[in-house]
Amino acid sequence: MNPDRLDPTHDPALRSWVSSAHVPGCDFPIQNLPFGRFRPFGSSEAFRIGVAIGDQVLDLRATGLIGDEDMNALMGHTREARQRLRAAISAGLAQGSDRQAAWSKALLPQSAVELTVPCRIGDYTDFYTGIHHARTVGSLFRPDAPLLPNYQWVPIGYHGRASSIGISGQRFKRPQGQTKAADAKEPAFGPSKRLDYELELGFLVGQGNALGQPISIEQAEAHLFGVTLLNDWSARDIQAWEYQPLGPFLSKNFATTLSPWIVTMEALAPFRAPFERPAGDPQPLPYLDAPSNRAAGALDIILEVLLQTAKMREAGEAPVRLTRVNVRDAAYWTAAQLVTHHTVNGCNLQPGDLLGSGTLSGPRPDEAGSLLELTLGGKQPIELPNGERRSFLEDGDTLILRGFCEREGAVRIGLGEVSGTVEPAQGG
Amino acid sequence: MNPDRLDPTHDPALRSWVSSAHVPGCDFPIQNLPFGRFRPFGSSEAFRIGVAIGDQVLDLRATGLIGDEDMNALMGHTREARQRLRAAISAGLAQGSDRQAAWSKALLPQSAVELTVPCRIGDYTDFYTGIHHARTVGSLFRPDAPLLPNYQWVPIGYHGRASSIGISGQRFKRPQGQTKAADAKEPAFGPSKRLDYELELGFLVGQGNALGQPISIEQAEAHLFGVTLLNDWSARDIQAWEYQPLGPFLSKNFATTLSPWIVTMEALAPFRAPFERPAGDPQPLPYLDAPSNRAAGALDIILEVLLQTAKMREAGEAPVRLTRVNVRDAAYWTAAQLVTHHTVNGCNLQPGDLLGSGTLSGPRPDEAGSLLELTLGGKQPIELPNGERRSFLEDGDTLILRGFCEREGAVRIGLGEVSGTVEPAQGG
């Protein structure tokens, strides 16, 4: 924990006049205050900026705290401005606030609104910070060199596709493409047979930087607005055939699904942890190293993956949990290191840009963030409680990611969830 | 040539009342009519849609042919709507038009306007269609496997960075980053020592597709709006260390430079050519093959690369040509194949998306589209007329790409040019 980042908005004793915010297990108590974009169900209005509180959404513009700026403009403010806005929202929603009467009219039930991608995502970069994932997957793709020589030096990343990003509830057709069996002379075309998910966090950029002006490691956190859950759907058979030499492309860009609420870096302040490299590992180069990053660079967030097959849904059976992992145990690079590395060559980040963490797998085999890892490349299918087996995802499967933070002395906050459903391939 | 695509706007006898359009060697005769975005120099107005004619810009909205739509909206129209717009612009600019008096007031000299990136680029994908480039570079990075087994089957591509795209005149600082010498134990940090350009075409998407709805090879060309020149600046030493396993990242995303005028697919109609694979090569899979693509999939465009060093500039010496290549001889995949491949998995393209061709090198060593190739990985520096030598780009170098189409029976049209200049590294 990093107490110098804490302020009255984190006070565990703070309570809201929105009573649903304090139901046990609620993701959105007054200590959280995540941002999203909403409009009333069935409306064709422009999406508005909202803050989740309990089972309600606060229409931020209706509170008078912001003007007609859009989410990206709001995200582009300085960290100090964001902290002031957070303090004002917290004060207005707190028990005893004189805003209660006015702001009650700015609330809508979450069940009555449609949400959308929380901001305009200009560029999406996906990193590869999960070292246990990199090692396990590397051993499947390259048995001779599971962890490449650059991994412990370079926060490996690549550009992803922004147009196909959706939010929780996204449904997509199983992708088709070229694949080549190891013993085949030529590739074949058809629906992917090795469709997978990837458990990730998405970091959303706040204030950007000008082209040619790197962001130092000390300043990097100030440029992050917050986090979402991210499912980086992956077609492993398409990936294996296409990825050399320029990286994954059609194996990834058919869909990427985010949770709709951005939990701010400010809300995560009580859940920071020291960041240390395992003994014997090389230390990061100086541009990626700073005392602040060592002291509190890590995030203490629990992530879970759940699966509900079509058969389970029809039988009324709840989703079954496949994985539970703490981000602290999975990520080899911090969010600040990603920002600094991304800009060290002068590349410019813009408000709303998305940085994926890469698949977050813990050190234990049952903490893996993808089926590729859980089933050892499809060789050991997992058995579900209803007797079904899965090597990879099947049509009708719904995959759910959840995330939350819990710690002694702090109020639990949640990242909500992101679900997505696989539909049969085009013409399939 | 594909005569069924020709219409009265291509008539070689057609002349404009804008007299500069018919100066010999002019890139923008009335048969061209490329689109860009401009505003008067020194103004802070919003950029407007313009059409280049001779040395003038036609303010399209001032002609009354369009309303207040932006460039991306205009690009998203159907091909038929675009053809109607082109016909109307051509008729109004033609000698004898009754619009001459009114439209004369809608003209501004190109020397009096500021241009910008011609549209809002949501996503940028860079392909790798230059087979001679792929083979030469492959032999430098992987002597044992220059052309990977997927190359002749998969139109290899990867996602690029949209935020750092600029237009002709872009200046950028030499990127810094991690590099590792082959004999070094650990990587080092510093300015790139192997900075290079890449000669490419950029295809701009017109009408998009919905997520999950692939674009067939027969329909693909209708979804392209036009082309620009593209310089995909590359830091080879950063690339060599970072690119495994997810592809190039910081080695590319510090800057990408486009020519400011989009030459439409309609303007290129007289310069189409049959597209045939060399005898003995595998045929493309059926989803990438169509009679229309074989009949006229290729583009007959001449590209040139020129270099002007700081010393040459100071001495008043003109840029020197490094390369001249015809796209026909360089590209292993057609633009239609890129569109179809990109969407076959359901990925959605949007108006204004950019598809880079990848480096276009001809079969002859002196037709190479990068210094990496011309100097064999820096081993054989090129000598310039003033006695300077270059293995890679040095600070102060200005690199210029030009493109044009010439053919018996057609009026020459040009793509204009794109220049960019390397500044010293941050703090360097």
TrEMBL record, chains A, B:
Location of the Fumarylacetoacetase N-terminal domain: 31-118
Q: In which pathway does it act?
A: Amino-acid degradation; L-phenylalanine degradation; acetoacetate and fumarate from L-phenylalanine: step 6/6
Essential cofactor(s): Ca(2+); Mg(2+)
Every copy of the Fumarylacetoacetase-like C-terminal domain together lies at 131-422
- InterPro entries, sorted: Fumarylacetoacetase (IPR005959), Fumarylacetoacetase-like_C (IPR011234), Fumarylacetoacetase_C_sf (IPR036663), Fumarylacetoacetase_N (IPR015377), Fumarylacetoacetase_N_sf (IPR036462)
Per the UniProt record, one Pfam family is: FAA_hydrolase_N
Gene3D superfamilies cross-referenced by the UniProt entry: Fumarylacetoacetase, N-terminal domain, Fumarylacetoacetase-like, C-terminal domain
Report keywords, A-Z: Calcium, Hydrolase, Magnesium, Metal-binding, Phenylalanine catabolism, Tyrosine catabolism
| Enzyme Commission code | 3.7.1.2
Instruction: Tell me what this protein is called.
Output: fumarylacetoacetase
**Which species is the source of this protein?**
Variovorax defluvii
